[in-house]
Amino acid sequence: MPIVAAVDRSDQATAIIEQAGQLGAAFEEPVHVVHVLTRKEFVSLERTNVTKSGSAVPIEEIEAIAEEIAAEAIEDAGADADAIGLVGKPAEEIVTYAETVDADYVVVGGRKRSPVGKALFGSVAQSVILSAESPIVMVKPPEKPA
Questions:
Q1: 107: domain CATH number?
Q2: Is 146 part of any domain?
Q3: What's the domain range around 35?
Q4: Nearest-5° Cα angle at 47, 64 to 121
Q5: Cα separations in angstroms, 73 against 32, 68, 77, 100
Q6: Is residue 65 part of a domain?
Q7: What is the pLDDT at residue 120?
Q8: Using one digit for the tens of pLDDT, what is the confidence trace for 111-144?
Q9: Which end of the chain has the lower number of beta carbons within 10 A, N or C?
Q10: Dist CA 4 CA 24 (whole Å)
């Protein structure tokens, strides 16, 4: 049962992967680093491809792009992990993937946001925390220098 590290393209990806790696080492479990391309990013990629070639981008290619992003994050962190690329709504895809692999833990990154920002826009991390069956480990965002 792997440790699932959910990453985006933020500066927090390395810290998330490092935390997942520590859990993986402690429990002798593999680490799966998951990156989810959103529908908006997917549509953007599809429009670009349709404009150039006149055909739609196969979902497998989009998942491969998401997997490449996860692989880059793994390389940046200098970690030993498997890269997983998914397409869809990030929170839903992360929770579904974690359930599918029966994850021991899911590691996510948080962001500092105002209460109004949280109420209006929601949060991937918050949705994962509320929906996942696995225990969640939240990596705090780095402190900004004063």
A1: 3.40.50.620
A2: no
A3: 3-139
A4: 80
A5: 12, 9, 6, 22
A6: yes
A7: 44
A8: 766 665 555 445 888 899 999 999 999 998 777 6
A9: C
A10: 9
Count of the separate structural domains present in the chain:
1
**Does any domain span residue 144?**
no
Residue 116 lies in a domain: yes
pLDDT in tens, 34-80: 999 987 777 776 655 555 666 667 788 889 999 999 999 999 999 99
Q: How far is CA 109 from CA 45, 61, 62, 64, 142, in A?
A: 25, 26, 23, 23, 10
Beta-carbon contacts of 70 under 8 Å, excluding residues fewer than 6 positions away, are 7, 33, 34, 35, 83, 84, 85
**What residues contact 66, with CB distance under 8 A and at least 6 apart?**
35, 36, 37, 85, 86, 87
pLDDT band at 19, cuts 50/70/90?
Answer: very high
Residues recorded for the chain: 146
Q: Is the dihedral of CA 101, 70, 60, 93 positive or negative?
A: positive
Tokens in use for 48? 């670009």
